[in-house]
Amino acid sequence: MSDPWSRADQKLSNIVIGKTYTLSFDALAAPDGATVEIGTSEGDDDVLVITTDDFPNAKSYSDTFIAPSEDLWIGLWVNQNPPVTALFDNISVAEYPPLVNEPPNRTVFIEAQEELGVDGIPTQTLLDSAREYITHDPIDGMDRQPLGLTDDTLHVEPITRQGFYVEVRSLLISTANEAAAKLQIVDELTVYFKNILPFIDGIDVEIDRADTISTLSVSIIVQEVLKQHGGTASGIGLGIQPGQYLNEYTLQSGQMAKLLAVNYV
User: Fold this and answer.
1) 116 and 91 housed in the same domain
2) Residue 100 covered by a domain
3) What domain range includes position 259?
4) Sequence-ordered alpha helix ranges (H) in the chain
5) I need a surface site. Which of 53, 65, 236, 250 has the fewest CB within 10 A?
6) CB neighbours of 89 closer than 8 A, spacing ≥ 6?
């Protein structure tokens, strides 16, 4: 009997030990048991394994891992005879969080009150007013920047707001309690995401940092609400795009979070 498992391997390049990376791919027509894995060699010492059985309603997959070695491979497995490479597309491994241009040292991020800007995003008029208040005394108009600093080196920028999707899988709850439970889940997750704040090095205390959103913390909130209403769920997914899941996400400078939607599958 021939082995029904088809496999293809690809060695990763430019991997740095200890850095966090994201593995993502699209499953074009993956059958049961189709798997994409990261390993330290061709088939040994798995670092990350994503099986399409775990996400039956998804077409795109994503997860993070920390590189334990520079010698890493992507392994593609599928339990059928056609070439496995025909079943997957857009396979990539990238640094996580994505590389971004760091803001200059004298950067102030402005968050507006909700009545002044959608999602707390300030208008240009508000940004200009904030800059003027920082650089000049509002009473006498005197320049109040420290000696040697000029307006040219001050950057006043709006915050950005990263949205998140939460997926609740296989919800079991009575019809009488379902609506109330779903409403409470949205309310409590909305508060949770609003309280996640970017870490400011040199100002914030490391032990108090609250800049990372995790599937575990979201799951605890959802399951606690369901428990109160006599319900359960088989699992929770967290992502910045529907159908793409992350273990965790750390906010960058000037970035805030918000809940976009809770989907039930």
Assistant:
1) no
2) no
3) 160-264
4) 124-135, 175-194, 215-228
5) 53
6) 25, 26, 28
CB 115 within 8 Å of CB 122: no
- Tens of pLDDT, residue by residue over 225-263, are 999 999 999 999 998 887 778 888 989 888 999 999 999
Closest by alpha carbon to 241, among 161, 160, 164?
164
The number of C-alpha atoms within 13 Å of 152 and in the hemisphere containing its C-beta is 1
Q: Measured between alpha carbons, how far is residue 62 from residues 59, 80, 131 in Å?
A: 10, 23, 40
pTM: 0.60
Largest CA distance in the chain: 89
Q: Is 95 helix (H, G, I), strand (E, B) or coil?
A: strand
Q: Where are the beta strands (DSSP E) in 13-151?
A: 20-27, 35-39, 46-51, 60-66, 73-79, 88-95, 107-110
Is 89 in the same domain as 183? no
Our count of domains for the chain comes to 3
